[in-house]
Amino acid sequence: MSMAIGIIGLLLGVAILIIFSFMGFAAVPTTMLGAAIVCIFNGINVWTGFSESWIGGLVGVLTAYYILFFASSVFANIMEATGACTSIAYKFLQWFGRKHIMTVICLLAFVLCYGGVSFFVIMFALGPIMEALYSELNIPRKLMILPTAAGCGAWVLAAPGSTQLSNVIPTALGTNLMAAPVLGFIILVVGMACEIWYCEHTYKKEMAIYAQTGEGYQEKPGSKYVLRKEEDCPNAITAFIPIIVLVAMIVIGSFASWFESATFLATLAMCVGCILCLLLNFKFLQGSKLSIIKDLLGRGATGAAGSALALGAIVGFGTVVSGTAAFASLTEWLMGLDLSVYWKGVISTGVLAGVCGSASSGAKLVMQYLGDYFVQSGCNLQILHRLIANASITFDSLPHATGCFLMFAYYGTNHKSAYKYVFMTDTLFPLIITVIATIICSILF
Fold first, then answer.
1. Is the pLDDT score of 116 beyond 80?
2. Environment class of residue 23 by beta-carbon count within 10 Å: exposed (0-12), middle (13-18) or buried (19+)?
3. Whole-angstrom Cα distance, residue 330 to residue 445?
4. DSSP 1
5. For residues 279 and 266, what is the distance between their CA atoms, to the nearest angstrom?
6. DSSP readout, 364-391?
7. Angle between helices 429-444 and 341-356 (to 10 degrees)
8. Whole-angstrom distance, CA of residue 170 vs CA of residue 370
9. Counting Cβ atoms within 10 Å, is residue 183 exposed (0-12), middle (13-18) or buried (19+)?
């Protein structure tokens, strides 16, 4: 088949993912249909595409992340069942009030992510706390996406000093994590200011609408969450300790290189958090303790399976796409664009991150194919590092992105009601500011 038809197949496959996700279809059937379209248009045997590439990507995620998801899910359930998350929520309300709760959650997510905690772990840790806050304040469930996406889905991933992959991968240029700190921190401050303004503006706007309609917080389907009275919750100290220890283990362990596997470190930290939360708040479990623990473990296993399947299905689709000749042709075309070094790095990274639905995948491919060219170009590699890091967080959050499916599934919402928040915080703002930064850097450097 011609390369043009193959590329059309790639675009149709991505379009299928976007359209069906907005229609409410689950990740597994959606990605299977998209992968089938990609295979047909690229002359690949559909069964081979499924049995080797698609399932290979899915199994890879299950192998790498299921235990982490299980530990994270159990931790979230224990925090909820003991009332620790509710205690933290009440304390947040006392400290910061109700008016700027979106900013508080956004900054909490930002600090955790900057400290080296992965997006998935942060999501599981924040989930039960937001359940308590949103229930108490009667905030619509779809707004759970807003501070999460703004706090740990964009700028912090590419910030100077960040240990997230978007900032780590460009060090292949011979730079370090603090490359171009002035440029990086200017982008970070401007970007976070935009995010916080948007969070506050949207929160006020949506709450005004819901005040008129009478709608508000809705429980997640299948959730057993019940808002407790403050006097029935653990004290704030024993509620905060498990999360503080968990985050400290990940941050210190990452910098001290305790383990080669970051996933193992995060899993171990989650297990310690589970044990601490149970030991410190055991008496606040309401009902038969043995039955509750069995239920927590059972729901943890089920929740982890759902999250891992959603993530694995998207990765499986990406595996099918990346294995086609059309994708290789698209990559080569991007690399051959007659542009300045900075623009070539930014555009190539953004487009490939968009096709793959992953910031790290886009940056990795650019480093793989253009790394030597960049080093030999004579450009300012520190500036290029920072621009590529920020370019990776532009189109990586399109509707077919892995993080979108996982986040929507975990928070009990969907693309139709909540994707607009992701688009604004994780695509539009990063795209505009990255383009402006690239224009300025192309002139000055």
1. no
2. exposed
3. 28
4. -
5. 20
6. HHHHHHHHHHHHHTTS-HHHHHHHHHHH
7. 160
8. 11
9. buried
Q: For residue 366, what are the contacts with CB-CB under 8 A and spacing of at least 6?
A: 345, 348, 349, 352, 388
DSSP string, 289-320: HHHHHHHHHHHHHHHHHHHHHHHHHHHHHHHH
Q: How confident is the model at residue 227 (pLDDT cuts 50, 70, 90)?
A: low
Tens digit of each residue's pLDDT (9 = 90 or more) over 341-399: 999 999 999 998 888 888 888 888 888 888 888 999 889 999 999 999 999 999 999 99
pLDDT of 6 higher than 60: yes
Q: Is residue 321 a contact partner of residue 355, using CB atoms and an 8 Å limit? A: yes
Alpha-carbon span 126 to 399, nearest angstrom: 22
Contact (CB, 8 A) for 265 and 239: no
**Structural tokens at position 347:** 């555009």
**Cβ count near 175 (within 10 Å):** 18
What pLDDT does 260 receive?
Answer: 74
Q: What is the pLDDT of residues 385-398, one digit of tens each?
A: 999 999 999 999 99
Residue 221 is predicted with a pLDDT of: 66
Residue where the block lists tokens 């899910």: 73
Per-residue pLDDT at 93: 81
Nearest-angstrom CA–CA distance, 145 and 165: 22
Name the amino acid, one letter, at 373: Y
Per-residue pLDDT tens over the stretch 396-405: 999 988 888 8
Contact between residue 296 and residue 81 where contact means Cβ atoms under 8 Å apart:
yes
